Amino acid sequence: MIYSFRNDYSSICHKKVMDKLIESMKEQNIGYGEDYHSDNAKKLIIEKLGHDADIYFLVGGTQANTTVISAVLRPYEAVIAVESGHINVHETGAVEGQGHKVITIKGQDGKVLIHEMQHILDTHMKTHMALPKMVYISQSTEVGTVYSLEELKEIYEFCQKNSLYLFLDGARLASGMAASGITFSDLGKYTDVFYIGGTKNGGYLGEAVVFNNKEIAKNFDYAQKHYGALMAKGFVASIPFEVLMQGNLYLEIGKKENECASYLAEGLKKLGYKFYSNSITNQIFPIVPKELFFVLEERYGVELWEKLESEFYAIRFVTSFTTTQENCQEVLDFLKKYQCN
Amino acid sequence: MIYSFRNDYSSICHKKVMDKLIESMKEQNIGYGEDYHSDNAKKLIIEKLGHDADIYFLVGGTQANTTVISAVLRPYEAVIAVESGHINVHETGAVEGQGHKVITIKGQDGKVLIHEMQHILDTHMKTHMALPKMVYISQSTEVGTVYSLEELKEIYEFCQKNSLYLFLDGARLASGMAASGITFSDLGKYTDVFYIGGTKNGGYLGEAVVFNNKEIAKNFDYAQKHYGALMAKGFVASIPFEVLMQGNLYLEIGKKENECASYLAEGLKKLGYKFYSNSITNQIFPIVPKELFFVLEERYGVELWEKLESEFYAIRFVTSFTTTQENCQEVLDFLKKYQCN
Amino acid sequence: MIYSFRNDYSSICHKKVMDKLIESMKEQNIGYGEDYHSDNAKKLIIEKLGHDADIYFLVGGTQANTTVISAVLRPYEAVIAVESGHINVHETGAVEGQGHKVITIKGQDGKVLIHEMQHILDTHMKTHMALPKMVYISQSTEVGTVYSLEELKEIYEFCQKNSLYLFLDGARLASGMAASGITFSDLGKYTDVFYIGGTKNGGYLGEAVVFNNKEIAKNFDYAQKHYGALMAKGFVASIPFEVLMQGNLYLEIGKKENECASYLAEGLKKLGYKFYSNSITNQIFPIVPKELFFVLEERYGVELWEKLESEFYAIRFVTSFTTTQENCQEVLDFLKKYQCN
Amino acid sequence: MIYSFRNDYSSICHKKVMDKLIESMKEQNIGYGEDYHSDNAKKLIIEKLGHDADIYFLVGGTQANTTVISAVLRPYEAVIAVESGHINVHETGAVEGQGHKVITIKGQDGKVLIHEMQHILDTHMKTHMALPKMVYISQSTEVGTVYSLEELKEIYEFCQKNSLYLFLDGARLASGMAASGITFSDLGKYTDVFYIGGTKNGGYLGEAVVFNNKEIAKNFDYAQKHYGALMAKGFVASIPFEVLMQGNLYLEIGKKENECASYLAEGLKKLGYKFYSNSITNQIFPIVPKELFFVLEERYGVELWEKLESEFYAIRFVTSFTTTQENCQEVLDFLKKYQCN
Lengths: 341, 341, 341, 341
What we know:
Four copies of one chain form a homotetramer. The first copy, chain A, has helices at 15-23, 36-49, 61-72, 86-89, 94-97, 114-122, 149-161, 173-180, 184-190, 220-226, 234-244, 249-270, 290-300, 325-340, and strands at 54-58, 77-82, 102-105, 131-138, 165-169, 193-197, 207-211, 283-284, 287-289, 303-307, 312-318. Chain A has 341 residues and is α/β, with parallel strands linked by helices. Chain A has two domains: 15-244, Aspartate Aminotransferase, domain 2 (3-Layer(aba) Sandwich); 250-340, Aspartate Aminotransferase, domain 1, CATH 3.90.1150.10. In chain A, the strands form two sheets. A seven-stranded mixed β-sheet of chain A has the order 1-7-6-5-4-2-3, with helices on both faces. In chain A, strands 8, 9, 10 and 11 form a four-stranded antiparallel β-sheet that branches. In chain A, β10 (303-307) and β11 form a beta hairpin. In chain A, α1 packs across α11 (234-244). Chain A is globular and about 65 Å long. The relative contact order of chain A is 0.17.
């Protein structure tokens, strides 16, 4: 393989994260997240939010989604998500595994639509249908799109009006923030709970779950342990955030990823390729002839996203904190040559 | 109210069921389904099937659906159903409550389509998506339609080929059998597990779960108790089936319900009403002006099914074992008069 | 079999309950517990309590225990019970099945001891241990003993002081009330939630769950449906209570059962038999030689309770609403003869 | 604090593990455990076992316990453990959270006793009690004791005879193996499934779950994802094992920990202290006066294990891969001085 564009979790971690880990090798820390690194990472996040919050460090995205949803909802309560939402498609029924229905709406461009959520509420039948109590969105979405600040506000207001909690999955938050201009302060104001993805944004693991709504965070430590989501070495989960939350590092990682993806997308457009979605984040979805996909898969590890008509495939390129403009140019050069043959 | 067409569970039970209950008042029976009545009811069902089967008596439909699905599937396995399926819409997330994802397909006329199920299998992604392992259908469906024997066979063959279990919800099986011509022997051959609805077909309660596939029935008694679905007075759950399975009583109840519904539907068509679905069972869905719905709701307890465009409502009339042709004629007479005003 | 003393759920129901059922055959009622009979049964119960309460009619004991516990507790919260408690021993892990740990204490005579519960609280370790949040007791207990009013009050005060909910399982409440002198008004004052057993006290089925603490009853209708514990024919579950709650019928059934059990116990004592527990309710546990147990099992359906030392068995006789003094005398006569051989 | 003896998870990881991590920084690996490091770690483990096995890398102990138990058992099946077992006491009801009852036996010295397990089987009541299907043991145990090879064999034979799976929790397996002489080859022969603890034995995280019984491992990848226990960066979970499984490193870590603990224990004995358990592993439990505990807590981070009579406390010292003989001598020196005052 020349360079893998398969995903944004193929390399261990950002150099600065590793430096911190090495630096901390000599320490003895208290377990289960009651250590200095966890406290420090929380402090840095709270500074960015501009208000107090309850913060917990979990290992991965599916775990974070499931633990948050199950800790907050009552058994008969459900979460609304778009059909393409990660919790609905790619988590092997983890949310249902803890007892909660995922009520799906079609959405548009991977994003929820308020009128569709309103329809769910309007057609709810007391007692006989799972009670919608939370809205799940992700920034960026599964198809690389982002919510604008205006859209986020509107959704949050809708939730507030209808007694729904708003939960934002930030597995790819760095890229999503860079693309949308939404800040931590905005996330602090316009969600009940969200998480800051570490795994896909330079950490070796970790998702920092941030409860702006402290009431629903009550006893989350118990839930975390109950669902097997509490690390004995809690500091291993928080150290990445101690680093990523320094200055603008997190955002810069997202920005760089987006720039690379954009550079690649522009080049692909010039070469005549159409796209499956209007992504401005670190995942792009060009449409290529079936046979080209197999070539690209071998050279760049790209994945098939969806089989379209007439032997065309939508495929996915993902840039990460390791991707450079040179990596992208190499793809474009290759394709130029490929097209000449 | 003149006569309630609200549903098929508004009266206690068929007279013959009550007679048997009264007759059994003096007895002392063993608990938890190990009694004579349960044995006898099983024997009668097995006679109709024409082959051996494992049979259990549960209380109601949601309980039967959830207990069967949870007892048979592994935690990460999912059940395929149409979007309008009872388990997907009207069971308050009970199946998800026991950990299983319901994978939905659009379907047509309330029925599954094989090519849509095939698409689910084709786009399944190992490890990352809930594993489809069962297909859930109901006879009759939520919109009053039925599977033909040909359709049932085809679905069963599809399931067999793809290692999926076929589970048929028979909450309204009497009406469904009468309308489709499908026999108990057919159900015995072309499903892995199904249940014979008692609650909505003349019993005061009860659903007889029939496992043709005895392998998946292993330890179902434990599952039944584990999910709170085992009655201490098991004979109370089986007595209705001892009666309903005598001769053709069950089928006759369905036939009579269908005849009444058909009589009513024909009359409504003559009066110019259109229908929401092509039901030939005991649920019919005429479309009426909004204001007429409120009149009918008061006189006949009918329910709103769906708000359509231009102030028209699809509403539901349900006939039951107590409904007579006179009850239906009274509705038609009323509507004739109503239209003249 | 001469007469079965196996349990108190071997006969369909009390004659008066059946009369009411027959009387209601002609009616059409609304489904899912929104009917007249349910309202009426609730009214009668509330009159006995002397204060308002939220009341729901479920089918059986395991279902009632599991649904109440799961609806009230958060996932990581646990219920304290004695080791011999029904939820710990004889419900096939139903409470755990819905995610909750049963924390056991030894107790004494089938009853919880406050100092043991205090020890659970004292040794609780934040985050790392399931959080005790409810105490489960039953009246009468598994070994036929009862809590006195004084004991109940003390337990309730302990619970109040420690933010624990008190839940009383009343599967055998009629007998328990008759033996203890505890009234519905007492149960209304000194529990958060309890249920009035129908199945084992003259109903053909049914347990009336009474929430004195209305806050924890919020959305219980959703939980009831979610756990498959809501009957379509809700009136079938409430009719028994409409009858049993008339005047003193419920208590009289318990009193009669206890009198028969006491008559039998006294006779057995005179014949020289020792007892396994000091029951004053409708379950008694004489100790007999192994070979006699097999004789009694065949004649009276009695069950083995525990194998003791030296080939002696503790066995269980249960009286029910059908038991007469004659039935008991017959046992005593038989044993007298048996001893002479 | 002078040096923390609080636990064996206070330092990030063994130097060699960190070296490997740094060495791998430049790589791009496939996600979700399908990478080279995972394959290599599996290969090394299989070599030590001496036979093929299905191996999965999870993050922590509670997660490993819960995922294994839930993936293997049916909903109504239960796991037998000693009362002091980690899954019973210190996992916040995680196993119950996934629906399974933990059936407890008293045991002795933290270990299961066969006659007590036999009693569970003998008193099992079909349908009405959770079905015992697995035995959970840990090596070393919660109180620092170990099973001998003879004991392990006997338990495994008991399990085989009674259709129970044997699951060995190896959170502290390095120390347990060093103390007992049990080898990986023994674990491969005499358990159905066990795990090799990484977190507490030199890894920054990770537990390698080893299924000797491949039949029960079927679809464990789905279960792993379903329970949120599958890391996107799977190589982060396997790299520690790639290192620890090299040569005898794992065992040497355990040996060194045990030697330090033993050195400390011997010194304490000479100073006159009694012990709570006969540990020969890396956890020791001296009994000290209450006031001394507070002094030691501050200097060495030791934890209170149990309050004994007359103001004496059993406390816990834990040695880890970072502990030296000097650290232990310092404690002994301090105590000698302390006693003189």
